[in-house]
Automatic annotation (TrEMBL):
Pfam families: UDG. Residues 29-187 form the Uracil-DNA glycosylase-like domain. Transmembrane segments: none annotated. InterPro entries: HI_0220.2, Uracil-DNA_glycosylase-like, Uracil-DNA_glycosylase-like_sf. Gene3D superfamilies: Uracil-DNA glycosylase-like domain. This is Uracil-DNA glycosylase family protein.
Amino acid sequence: MTDDLEKLFEQARACRLCAGVLPHGCRPVLRGSPSARLLIVGQAPGARVHASGIPWNDPSGDRLRQWLAMDRDAFYDESRIAIVPMGLCYPGTAPKGGDYPPRPECAPLWHPPLRAALTGVRLTLLVGSYAQAHYLGNRRRRTMTDTVAAWRDYLPEFLPLPHPSWRNTAWLKKNPWFDAELVPALRRRVDEALDG
Ligand code: SF4
């Protein structure tokens, strides 16, 4: 790992900026290396990820790996795949269910330097609306669905995806083009990024 990235990972993992507001304390969860060719930007760790310190170590991760047709060994090979969510720490769960949004101070602080130090990245998966807002800005469409449906417009740098949470199962049923068109293209593009 280069000094730059190693230092940044150390600094990010030691970050306590939101210590006063995070209900379960600070535990930044991120991984990667300068040789990583694929970057996955999700929302924020959930309770299980916070407990284990392993990103996407939950049912959402299982669905994401199924979309990618990738087993856990391949998914967690950080020499090939970097994982940096929009909020590095678990934001807690709202009383009515569903996690709170990623801490708003996190992505502006950590994403620009981390992205710059991840010099090998060829393709970035923008998983969910927070990642799409940060990386696509005003190139986003009116809704998350419209943005994901326009996925061809953001290649070759970005590929927007819905969040693979069980909460989006109805969305997946309502948008069959996702499984029919986007998932095969996702697998192809990821293979090209990793092995091309
Ligand atoms: S959420 Fe981000 S900014 Fe806040 S403490 Fe965790 S790493 Fe730091």
